[in-house]
Amino acid sequence: MKKKVIFICSANHSGSTFFDLMLSNGQADIKSCGELHWLDKEHKKFGWEKRHENSMKIWPKYKDVQEDIAKGVDVYKSISNRFGANIIIDSSKTPNWIEPMSIKLWNSEEFTPEFFIIYKTPLELAHSIFKRNMPYSTLKSIYVSWYTHYLRVAYHPLVVAYKDLVDKPKIVLKAACDYVKIPYYDGKERFWEQEIPYLVAGCAETMTHFFTQDSKAYNNRVKYIQNTQARSDSDIAGVKRKYKTLYYDDGWKSLDKGLVDKINGDKDIQNIYRKLEERKLKV
After folding, report:
1. Residue ranges covered by each domain of the chain
2. The whole model's pTM is what?
3. For the segment 124-178, what is each residue's pLDDT rounded down to a tens digit?
4. Residue 90 is inside which H or E element, if any?
5. What is the second-level CATH architecture of the domain 3-279?
6. What is the rounded distance in angstroms from the CA atom of residue 32 to the CA atom of residue 48?
7. How far are the Cα atoms of 116, 129, 151, 159 from residue 280, in angstroms, in the given order?
8. Which residues contact 263 (CB under 8 A, 6 or more apart)?
């Protein structure tokens, strides 16, 4: 039986990291990897190791993977061998990685690809984008270009709405596990109960759930969020309030009316949104 690589296709800040971790929770032979496309780059120039000092417990293995890649070894084969994984979850948020990797996997004798697409509504994503001081052009580029690409290259994906995953995690997660034929158990959505996976990149806020709130690791991540994502004090308080919960951020409801009208009237964005809604898992 072939091993699996599960791609979680998404925009930035759309729930891919905690979906990734939910799927791997409680399963020793499933490796949550985070955004594997970063292994093609040299992380030191981004200060990755310094920012995520706790990841050094696992990072040496990823350095070995990078060395394997440099020698021409397939990234998934290397991860499977070094981590003992039969199922690898790759939540790289870039179509330019997912398309060539999936093509290689279709031609592989060892692996087969599976696909999820997780998305927010345009207004939900707008809130996540704008509170990080990114422009409208970023919202439109990500939503239209990326999801158009995902819908084209992902073969028979299970499409999941972010809000459905947060509001009805047991139903959505059970369907997702059935879809890729991995075991489901009650409580699997509490991803923070597993051993810390130490992902390549991924959402810093999601990773706070793995540490006690009085720990250095937790507070370092909160500081990182505060320093890099231009959040207000109230947003940081929200990070702490959401600790070890699946929390739906309804901050989009406070978006400026003119901006809401612009997004709702953007035919390109709304066309992709309709396609995602039509194909999503019905819960």
Report:
1. 3-279
2. 0.90
3. 999 999 988 899 999 999 999 999 999 999 999 999 999 999 999 999 999 999 9
4. strand 87-90
5. 3-Layer(aba) Sandwich (3.40)
6. 18
7. 10, 22, 12, 4
8. 122, 123, 126, 139, 269
